[in-house]
Amino acid sequence: MDRVFADGGTAKGFPIVARFASTPPEGHAPTRVAFTVSKRRFKRAVDRNRVKRLMREAWRHHRQIIENDIPSGVQWAVVLIFVGSDLPSAQQVERGMVKMLNRMSAATTNQGA
């Protein structure tokens, strides 16, 4: 994960920011994903867990946008960071996820994956 923050790319789709980098393959999945929500923005654990659950569900529904562009033998490490200040609805998270994944896909194809 340190490599993702040190020399990875960034894609934004409010209220989600993604940091991503190419990594040596570990397992069969084309991506390895982590979800983070700031304790400073959401004091209660139930609120942080709800936001992470919404992000995981949006990722599960829309991850093929990025995974279809990843060549075999390459794996991407992705950290999804929630940057909004209010509890989002599922629709807000879905819209942000799709926008962010499209920008991430464009960034990965531009750098030659």
Number of helical elements = 4
Estimate the mean pLDDT confidence.
91
If you consult CATH, what is the topology? Ribosomal Protein S5, domain 2
- Kindly estimate the percentage of residues that lie in beta strands according to DSSP: 15-25%
How far the N terminus sits from the C terminus, by CA atoms, comes to: 18 Å
Task: Give the SSE order as H and E letters.
Answer: HEEEHHEH
> Which spans of ≥5 residues are poorly predicted at pLDDT below 50?
none
Label the CATH architecture. 2-Layer Sandwich
Largest β sheet strand count, sense and barrel closure:
4 strands, mixed
Question: Summed up, what is this model?
Answer:
The chain is of the alpha+beta class and 113 residues long.
Protein model, in words:
- By secondary structure, the protein is an alpha+beta fold.
- The chain has a single domain, classed as Ribosomal Protein S5, domain 2 (2-Layer Sandwich).
- 43% of the residues lie in helices and 25% in strands.
- The chain contains 4 helices and 4 strands, in the order αβββααβα.
- Strands 1-2-4-3 form a 4-stranded mixed sheet.
- α2 crosses α4.
- The two termini are 18 Å apart.
- The mean pLDDT is 91.
